[in-house]
Specification:
The chain is an alpha+beta fold. It has eight helices and 19 strands. The strands form six sheets. It has a five-stranded antiparallel β-sheet, with helices on one face. A four-stranded mixed β-sheet has the order 1-2-5-3. Strands 15-18-17-16 form a four-stranded antiparallel β-sheet.
Length: 304
């Protein structure tokens, strides 16, 4: 770490929002990950822009973090700057059938706001443990719903610090991808367009989906959710189960016995354990079924 750069960040954000050598295991749902050189918590868009300027001037790589629910950070950590939006960019505003929310707002919080205002269409996202920013970037979805079904527009910051508003029909949202992902934009906020509904029915639907998650997913263990993307024409979890890998374990990482699409941290798993397990699964499934599984989890840091 460079003390001069540390002092520049402290001058910009304040000492309590700048953390050096911050263990990323504290900030990922996997509870895995070595230290980040700099862990920053900006409170407004101007600070984000200035952080990007500093990173560019000092050739520092950066990564924008929500609540780390779809992320595997290497055991050696991240040699660069983590910009955390979770906790700082969480504002949710409901106007008629529109919801404008900042990128750091939890999807569960937005779903509750929609329910409380009798708005339907966002029930599918209530149990997804991510933030709005990541959900927009990846076109998150569950139980037949996707972000592209409800998104009206997104406000993003480019790598050079320019702020632009992109309407949904220009985002090219596909399966776990979007223009935002391809261009490396930073989501600042987004507007969702929902419909008026019956609050009791919305509440009942959210409970139904929550009960489904609890019964079918290994929520009692740290994980990053579904580990693999859904291969066209197949279900990753069934392929893994049919390959005889239910409960397969490498170190502290295990294929969940409850749902084979999840890799879980059974205790003290390392990123290396998870990566080796993923590779073993990919190889076994390809050997048996000729299907190439692609990880849905993002990898951050050095995995050589």
């Amino acid at each position: 770490m460079d003390q001069n750069i540390t002092e520049i960040f402290i001058e910009l954000l304040g000492k309590d929002r700048v953390h050096v050598n911050e263990p990323m295991s504290r900030h990922t749902s996997f509870r895995i990950g070595g230290p980040a050189d700099y862990f920053l918590q900006p409170s407004d868009t101007e600070q984000i822009k200035k952080i990007l300027d500093i990173c560019r001037e000092n050739k520092l790589p950066f990564f924008v973090l929500g609540n780390g629910s779809n992320l595997l950070v290497s055991d050696t950590g991240f040699s660069g700057v983590i910009i955390q939006l979770f906790h700082n960019f969480e504002r949710i505003i409901v106007e008629d059938t529109l919801i404008r929310a900042q990128a750091g707002a939890l999807l569960s919080g937005i779903a509750v706001a929609a329910r409380d205002h009798s708005l339907t269409g966002f029930e599918f996202a209530g149990g997804i443990p991510g933030t709005l920013g990541g959900a927009v970037v990846m076109n998150a979805g569950a139980y037949g719903g996707e972000m592209k079904h409800v998104l009206k527009e997104a406000t993003v910051m480019t790598q050079s610090g320019e702020i632009i508003i992109i309407p949904a029909d220009k985002l090219n949202m596909g399966y776990r991808t979007s223009v935002i992902k391809e261009a490396g934009y930073i989501v600042l906020d987004a507007v969702l367009s929902l419909q008026k509904g019956d609050q009791k029915e919305i509440r009942a639907k959210m409970k139904e989906l929550t009960d489904l998650r609890v019964s079918k997913q290994p929520l009692e263990y740290p994980s990053a959710g579904s580990t693999f993307k859904r291969p066209e024409g197949y279900f990753a979890g069934k392929l893994i189960m049919d390959a005889g890998l239910r409960g397969y374990q490498v170190g502290g990482a295990q294929i969940s016995e409850k749902h084979c699409g999840f890799v879980i941290n059974k205790g003290n798993a390392t990123a290396s354990d998870v990566l080796r397990l993923i590779e073993d699964v990919k190889n076994r499934v390809y050997e048996q079924f000729g299907v190439n599984l692609e990880p849905e989890v993002k990898f951050l840091g050095d995995f050589k």
